[in-house]
Specification:
The chain has a single domain, classed as Rossmann fold (3-Layer(aba) Sandwich), CATH 3.40.50.1820. The protein contains nine helices and ten strands. Strand 5, helix 3 and strand 6 form a beta-alpha-beta unit. An eight-stranded mixed sheet has the order 1-2-4-3-5-6-9-10, sandwiched between helices. It has a two-stranded antiparallel ribbon with strand order 7-8. With 284 residues, the protein is of the alpha/beta class.
């Protein structure tokens, strides 16, 4: 196998306003492509552990960075980020996935889990892996811990039109709650702004006339796996059970894990479970 290295390139321009940046490792692999979709406030970097794990098992991993998320964490957010919606993200991802020329495996974490569901309803996928996925419309996921994760959001006034970034304390409580404080600060320092519109389309779906987070389950025909940590505070386990029921998915809950399934101590056990499931996904 040819040694791999990080490669960064620009996808074809979809409009004059932006380019979708994609990071992947160049390998001599012709199939088993996995599109890994990150969640709020993050970028393709969050998949580094999983890329390493799955590439060692012969997969080709593509970890796109969502529109306007390829920014310096300390920079002023793009002026169009606040009004960028879920459908904008999914359109970009569809362009990326369609360019692979194969039925990809689609994997998503958190908001990326919802984007993965939306993408899988648009294209033919080999399998769908949802790690602590945000819920589509119709699935109630509200809990006190979720409200606490977004306490700073209403202070922005018309927050549904403005960029948003969790405070350190919100992130430490709801996303990195099982990580050491030093790691919490390191990860939060990488945070970029998220779209207020996308956040609202997820959390306030009953008020969204566009129904941007709606997923037609009948259009997802591939095997589906849902995974959640029992200590997740921002994506409550009960909501992931409802998502699993929607797609008649295989469902797995990991004790002693929370939301950051991509890097918490023992993430390798989760990645190994997903690998084993994928090995038999075609026969499901």
């Amino acid at each position: 196998m040819v040694p791999s290295r990080w490669v960064k390139y620009d996808a074809p321009e979809i409009s004059s306003l932006y380019k979708l940046r994609i990071m992947h490792r160049a390998m001599n692999v012709q199939n088993n492509s996995i599109v890994m979709i990150h969640g709020m406030w993050c970028a393709g970097w969050c998949w580094e552990n999983y890329v390493r794990h799955f590439e060692a098992r012969g997969y080709r991993c593509i970890a796109p960075t969502l529109r306007y998320h390829d920014a310096d964490p300390g920079a002023v957010p793009h002026p169009l980020l606040g009004t960028t919606g879920l459908r904008d993200y999914v359109s970009d991802l569809e362009t990326t996935a369609s360019g692979l020329g194969l039925r990809p495996i689609i994997m998503g974490h958190s908001m990326g889990g919802l984007l993965a569901q939306l993408l899988a309803s648009r294209i033919q996928a080999r399998a769908l892996v949802l790690l602590a996925p945000a819920s589509p419309s119709g699935v109630l996921a509200l809990a006190p811990s979720v409200i606490r994760a977004f306490l700073s959001l209403p202070a922005k006034g018309t927050f549904w039109k403005k960029p948003h970034k969790q405070t350190f304390h919100e992130a430490a409580y709801s996303v990195f709650n099982l990580m050491p404080v030093r790691e919490q600060r390191k990860l939060h320092a990488k945070y970029v702004y998220e779209s207020g519109r996308a956040i609202s389309e997820i959390g306030l779906w009953p008020l969204d006339r566009r129904k941007a987070s709606s997923v037609d389950a009948s259009k997802i025909t591939c095997p589906v796996l849902t995974v959640v940590g029992t200590h997740d505070r921002i994506i409550p386990p009960f909501s992931v059970r409802k998502v699993a029921a929607k797609y008649k998915a295989t469902h797995k809950e990991f004790a002693d894990h929370a939301h950051w399934l991509l890097g918490e101590q023992g993430w390798q056990d989760i990645a190994a479970y997903v690998s084993d499931w994928l090995d038999h996904a075609d026969s499901r």
